[in-house]
């Protein structure tokens, strides 16, 4: 057992909860609830960042924490929420094929990322280096979500949660990216959220649904 | 382990097991009472479960003519295996000989033995309801058991022992620290406990509605003392899970030395912990609705996921370099 200070203990608990929220996103079939889970994940990531700032006394991380809270916990979920309401998907329930299998595969990904990160952990940057394995798992789980979901909105949520994982990895491994990069990424994500909104409307206008599988079927039908 | 040989410790272990059995109806009475209060009803008196058991013990036990000896033997086997399981768990004191001779895997084994005979008894008479209840019970058990074992393994990995008493001692002795693995294991245990003891959202203990019942369906053919033993065993099981959660995750207050003062504190501590857990159970039963049987696998999948995350976060976050 590592001897960690209380703040570091809270950091590891919170990052474990971030991992759990990734699984919640993966298994959540209701879109509105998935958006809420995503907002919670953003808030948790912001909290972890703020705590890391106090542990490492890195004042610029406070700024990142506020930025994360504002963008990923409030603004983007609100935009997604509005989009869902506009597209009348409030009551939409997605069917995930083999949900239990997906979850188990996700658990396998956590193990895999632990195995991958082991050599990095031995280098040992900080007391919170254990968190890196979890952040990689969050990235992979986001990717898995984009693979297994057919609904565009949930794919976007998967993409955003990947970004959460990357951000947390940067914070855990190297005490945050340079401010310019961080700002750039944050606004990229924001712009992506806006663009995705436009795309949703376009996709729905052209195929009258947001199920990505139907994009495939249409092209096949045309080539036949 | 010197406590294995001491007769005083054995006596105390016997008293503890007896106390476990005698207090079990009180716990379910308490849950029922709190639940009634929450629903603006007065509810049955706290000691009603004892009166029910007394009444049933005095009645004639009717047995269907198609019943085999398994049907007659099952209540005794179910009750005694549950009781043996209860004797393994530290209730008011650790370091007792019963806890030293049997570890947590034996505990799960005892519970599985009881469940096996319960399911057999359900199918024995050959009525439709019994078989249906047994099939449902085995479905739930098959999914809940791995989750429970995983959650327990998380704890045993932290304490480096499968002995429950030593796990409790380890938690008490190690300096207080937040452990994500304990958090997840607690979540998993709570979900499993609700499923295993047949409470809402998995099963409703208060109804005999044909389509939804699980536990009640299996014991539908029982009467008299057989039924009393079955019901007592179910109450004991609720108590087992309650004590397991209370003492393994929040062990503070339990007696680690065998003198009168610390035993009294231990008794007071476990009583208050169980009272709080009972209130929590009653609140969750009032807030939640029973879910469809086909959603139970999803629910237990969540429990398994939590238990897995508990082990992962123990290995990744807590063992470290």
Could you characterize what this model shows?
The complex is a heterodimer of chains A (224) and B (321). Chain A is mainly α and 224 residues long. Chain A has one domain (6-223). Chain A is built from eight helices and no strands. The longest helix of chain A is centred in the last third of the chain and has 29 residues, at 179-207. Chain B has one domain. Classes of the chains: A mainly alpha (224), B mainly alpha (321). The interface between A and B is medium-sized, with 29 and 25 residues.
Instruction: Report the strand count of chain B.
Output: 0
Derived structural class of chain A: mainly alpha
First-to-last CA distance of chain A? 62 Å
Count of runs of 4 or more consecutive helical residues of chain A = 8
Rounded mean pLDDT score of chain A = 84
Report Rg of chain B.
19 Å
Secondary structure: number of strands of chain A: 0
**What is the total number of structural domains of chain A?**
1
Number of domains of chain B: 1
The pair of chains with the biggest contact is: A-B, 29 and 25 residues
Strand content of chain B: under 5%
Estimate the strand proportion of chain A: under 5%
Shape category of chain A: globular
Q: What key attributes describe this structure?
A:
heterodimer, A: 224 residues, B: 321 residues, mainly alpha, 72% helix
In short:
Chain A has 224 residues and is mainly α.
Reconstruct the topology from this structure.
The complex is a heterodimer of chains A (224) and B (321).
Chain A: H1 6-27, H2 31-56, H3 59-86, H4 99-123, H5 131-148, H6 152-174, H7 179-207, H8 213-223
Helix pairs in contact in A: 1-2, 1-5, 2-3, 2-6, 3-6, 3-7, 4-5, 5-6, 6-7
Chain B: H1 7-38, H2 48-58, H3 69-88, H4 97-101, H5 104-124, H6 128-159, H7 164-173, H8 180-196, H9 215-218, H10 224-249, H11 260-287, H12 296-319
């Amino acid at each position: 057992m590592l001897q960690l200070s209380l703040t570091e203990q809270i950091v590891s608990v919170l990052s474990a909860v971030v991992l759990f929220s990734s699984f919640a996103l993966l298994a959540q079939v209701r879109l509105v609830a998935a958006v809420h889970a995503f907002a919670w994940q953003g808030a948790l990531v912001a909290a972890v960042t703020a705590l890391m700032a106090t542990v490492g006394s890195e004042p610029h991380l406070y700024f990142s924490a506020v930025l994360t809270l504002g963008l990923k916990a409030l603004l983007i979920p609100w935009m997604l929420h509005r989009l869902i309401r506009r597209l009348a998907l409030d009551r939409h329930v997605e069917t995930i094929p083999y949900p239990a299998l997906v979850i188990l595969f996700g658990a396998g990904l956590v193990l895999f990322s632990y195995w991958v990160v082991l050599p990095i952990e031995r280098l040992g940057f900080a007391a919170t280096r254990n968190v890196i394995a979890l952040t990689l798992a969050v990235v992979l789980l986001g990717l898995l979500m984009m693979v297994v979901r057919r609904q565009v909105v949930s794919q976007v949520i998967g993409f955003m949660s990947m970004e959460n994982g990357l951000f947390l990895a940067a914070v855990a491994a190297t005490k945050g990216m340079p401010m310019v990069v961080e700002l750039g990424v944050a606004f990229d994500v924001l712009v992506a959220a806006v663009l995705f909104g436009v795309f949703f409307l376009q996709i729905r206008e052209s195929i009258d649904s947001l199920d990505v599988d139907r994009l495939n079927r249409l092209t096949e039908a045309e080539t036949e | 382990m010197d406590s294995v040989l001491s007769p005083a410790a054995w006596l105390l272990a016997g008293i503890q097991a007896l106390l476990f059995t005698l207090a079990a109806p009180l716990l379910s009475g308490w849950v029922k009472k709190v639940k009634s209060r929450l629903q603006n009803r007065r509810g049955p008196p706290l000691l009603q479960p004892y009166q029910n058991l007394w009444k049933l013990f005095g009645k004639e036990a009717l047995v269907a003519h198609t019943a085999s000896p398994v049907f007659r033997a099952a209540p005794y086997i179910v009750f005694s295996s549950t009781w043996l399981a209860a004797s393994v768990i530290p209730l008011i004191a650790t370091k007792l000989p019963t806890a030293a001779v049997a570890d947590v895997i034996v505990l799960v084994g005892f519970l599985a033995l009881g469940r096996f005979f319960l399911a057999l008894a359900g199918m024995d008479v050959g009525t439709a309801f019994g078989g249906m209840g047994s099939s449902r019970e085995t479905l739930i058990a098959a999914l809940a058991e791995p989750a429970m074992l995983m959650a327990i393994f998380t704890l045993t990995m932290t304490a480096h022992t499968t002995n429950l008493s030593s796990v409790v001692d380890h938690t008490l002795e190690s300096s207080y620290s937040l452990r994500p693995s304990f958090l997840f294991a607690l979540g998993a245990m709570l979900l499993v406990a609700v499923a295993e003891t047949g409470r809402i959202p998995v099963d409703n203990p208060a109804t005999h509605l044909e389509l939804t019942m699980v536990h009640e369906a299996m014991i539908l053919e029982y009467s008299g003392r057989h039924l009393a033993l079955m019901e007592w065993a179910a109450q004991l099981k609720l108590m087992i899970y309650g004590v397991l959660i209370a003492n393994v995750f929040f062990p503070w207050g339990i007696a680690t030395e065998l003198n009168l003062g610390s035993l009294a504190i231990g008794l007071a501590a476990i009583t208050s912990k169980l009272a709080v857990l009972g209130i929590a159970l009653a609140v969750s039963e009032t807030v939640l609705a029973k879910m469809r049987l086909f959603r139970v696998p999803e629910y237990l999948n969540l429990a398994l996921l939590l238990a897995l995350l508990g082990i992962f976060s123990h290995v990744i976050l807590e063992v470290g370099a």
